[in-house]
Amino acid sequence: MTDIHGMPVQYIMYAPYGEELLNQKVTGAYHTAYTFTDKERDPETGYLHFDARNYIDVLGIWTRPDPLLDQYIENTAYAYCDGNPIKYVDPIGEWIAVTSNDDTGIAYRIVGGAIDVDDCNVYIVGDDYNMDRDGKPQGANVLGQTATPYSFSFYNQKTEKDDFAFGSIINMNDKSGDAFLARFENDEIPFVLYLLPPCLSNVSGWNKGKCDFKYGGDENSGIPLAILGGKIGTARDIGNFAAGYIAAVNGRTFRASMNAMDVFQNLKNNCTTGEPPVSRSAQMLGFRYGWAARFANRVCQPNIYNGYH
């Protein structure tokens, strides 16, 4: 890692499975929590957060079995990268299939999708595409990639299974997401005020609040985001990205921020489950951008686009 002037401030060397062999840093310099394969290390357990489950790098195994175990019955459920970390990586993602909605090349409708361990592409398919018959598109053109591995998925309480935003529209000309996030460039919002309901805060992230982007529309509608290099996020992603960003630029720790958002989610929806993965992944992304902005501008006002630049 280097500082804003390009001077080295931290050096980490890993064994193939991620165990740290060496970790040197300049005294007083920023210390990253995102290490092996850019995943966050929990300081309490020493485990790495890989979204779907935690990883023990010293042992080279997962703490829980593979959620896709039934598709790979020839492998152990706890192995990392099929025992070959030099050749393989193990992100989590989903592929999405879309068809043109108006023949303009601007708007697309989601017609398919599935969890995939190494594919976050949005594929353009024809009008005759059938999810049950065709499955994952082969050789299709790629519209882009999703902002997070869970962008267009959600937990369906009726079926008690993960589902996808079938029928939702992706508008490649929609700039509303970037316009919304740009409001935070020079507007330092206290994290506590974001968590309060609209009746108590004019910058609330609750329904109809100033910082609630998705209220009143399809929260699974797709929007390209310049801040993420053109990746396609949902309205829900944008709101959760903002929440994570606000927490970070206010100097909150990651764990405290996520705990506060769990309480926020439980109060808002009268539940006890906390934030689902689709929300948490976007919050984590926003938090990382917030810390990048805070670190790069210790003297100046934090800028939401510093993480991107």
Strand and helix map with partners:
Layout: E1 10-14, E2 20-25, E3 40-41, E4 48-49, E5 54-56, E6 61-62, E7 93-100, E8 107-116, E9 121-124, H1 131-134, E10 141-145, E11 153-156, E12 161-164, E13 169-171, H2 176-182, H3 191-195, E14 222-225, E15 231-234, H4 235-249, H5 254-269, H6 277-296
Parallel strand pairs: 7-9
Antiparallel strand pairs: 1-2, 3-4, 4-5, 5-6, 7-8, 8-13, 9-10, 11-12, 14-15
Q: Can you describe what's shown?
A:
The structure is a single chain. This protein is an alpha+beta fold. It folds into three domains: 10-83, no CATH class; 93-169, no CATH class; 173-296, no CATH class. The chain contains six helices and 15 strands. The protein has helices at 131-134, 176-182, 191-195, 235-249, 254-269, 277-296; strands at residues 10-14, 20-25, 40-41, 48-49, 54-56, 61-62, 93-100, 107-116, 121-124, 141-145, 153-156, 161-164, 169-171, 222-225, 231-234. It has a five-stranded mixed β-sheet with strand order 10-9-7-8-13, with no helix packed on it. Strands 3-4-5-6 form a four-stranded antiparallel β-sheet, with no helix packed on it. The protein has a two-stranded antiparallel sheet with strand order 1-2. Helix 4 (235-249) packs across helix 5 (254-269) and helix 4 (235-249) packs across helix 6 (277-296). The protein is globular.
Share of helix, binned: 10-25%
Terminus-to-terminus distance: 16 Å
**Broad shape:** globular
Tally of domains = 3
Strand order of the largest sheet: 10-9-7-8-13
Number of DSSP helices?
6
Order of SSEs = EEEEEEEEEHEEEEHHEEHHH
Global Rg: 20 Å
Largest sheet features: 5 strands, mixed
Structural class: alpha+beta
On the 0-100 scale, what is the average pLDDT? 79
Number of strands: 15
Q: Which residue ranges are poorly predicted, with pLDDT under 50 across at least 5 consecutive positions?
A: 298-309
Into which percentage range does the β-strand content fall? 15-25%
